[in-house]
Specification:
With 294 residues, the chain is of the alpha/beta class. It has 10 helices and 11 strands. InterPro entries: Aminoacid_DH-like_N_sf, NAD(P)-bd_dom_sf, THF_DH/CycHdrlase, THF_DH/CycHdrlase_cat_dom, THF_DH/CycHdrlase_CS, THF_DH/CycHdrlase_NAD-bd_dom.
């Protein structure tokens, strides 16, 4: 069994980007600039955005955090999005989800300039990804593909079961895994809450990618020997015995499933760090594109 160490790989990617940025500075060029828009004070979002800002600083990117109050109106947020679209200094930006309930997420994501959409959520970018065109790939699926690549996990012809059909992870990773290339060329089954006989499917799977958000959903009796398991789930489970009052776990019953797996990602330290690394990689790509256009 080999652990797919997202923390280690994400650090390698950050080091590679740091070298590129240092060379840009040497040549007197503009360094990549990532902005993040955060509305309200959701704990997980604050942690995630803070981590992105720290990562930018570490690798030499410019970063801007726009933290707006919970009561910000939809129009005010859309106005901020337009400002970012028109700001030549900003190469890419993200609007941190979830947004407060009074704001239409779809409307906001549609307003983001696809050329600055480093999250890869805009329909233009999703469509290009589905058609095998060069684009921004959503950071979490991009990170999973990079893990497969760097650990030389063989995906060709393998039966991959993706659990969860979100637009952010489930659907894009199911498309990427079925595309020509390496990693890719897998036979993909996309399972979800209405799937019947899920256990039968997971027992046939060579690769399981779980993005469900249900703690320890995938048990050892649901997987076969030698399976590769990617755990995208991350849930805070309340626990008064812990100092923080909670612990973080994934979709997979890790301790038991790892006994049968050939490769597995831990939670935390697996897919999470890769998501941030690939967001930085997308920002670097955005800056390269903007430079080639000007």
């Amino acid at each position: 069994m080999e652990i797919l160490d997202g923390k280690k790989v994400s650090n390698q990617i950050k080091e590679e980007i740091t070298v590129e940025v240092a060379q840009m500075k040497k040549r007197g060029e503009k360094v990549p600039h990532l902005a993040a828009v955060l509305v309200g004070n959701d704990g997980a979002s604050l942690t995630y955005v803070g981590s992105k800002v720290r990562s930018c600083k570490k690798i030499g990117f410019e970063s801007t955090l726009i933290h707006l109050p919970e009561e910000t109106t939809e129009d005010e947020l859309l106005n901020r999005v337009r400002q970012l679209n028109n700001d030549p200094e900003i190469d890419g930006y993200i609007v941190q989800l979830p947004l407060p309930k009074h704001i239409d997420e779809e409307k906001v994501l549609m307003a983001v300039d696809p050329d600055k959409d480093v999250d890869g959520f805009h329909p233009t970018n999703f469509g290009k990804m589905a058609l095998d065109m060069e684009t921004f790939i959503s950071a979490t699926p991009f990170g999973i593909m990079e893990l497969f690549k760097r650990y030389n996990v063989d995906t060709e012809g393998k039966h991959t079961v993706v659990i969860g059909r979100s637009h952010i992870v489930g659907r894009p990773i199911s498309i990427l895994m079925s595309q020509k290339g390496n990693p890719g060329n897998a036979t993909v089954t996309l399972a979800h809450s209405r799937t019947k006989n899920l256990k039968e499917l997971t027992l046939q799977a060579d690769i399981i990618i779980s993005a469900l958000g249900v703690p320890k959903f995938l048990k050892a009796d649901m997987v076969k020997e030698g399976v590769t398991v990617i755990d995208v789930g991350i849930t805070r489970v309340p626990d008064e015995t812990r100092e923080k009052g909670y612990y973080i776990t994934g979709d997979v019953d890790y301790e038991k499933v790892k006994e049968k797996a050939s490769y597995i990602t831990p939670v935390p330290g697996g897919v999470g760090p890769m998501t941030i690394a690939m967001l930085l990689k997308n920002t670097l790509l955005a800056r390269e594109r903007h430079t080639s256009k000007n």
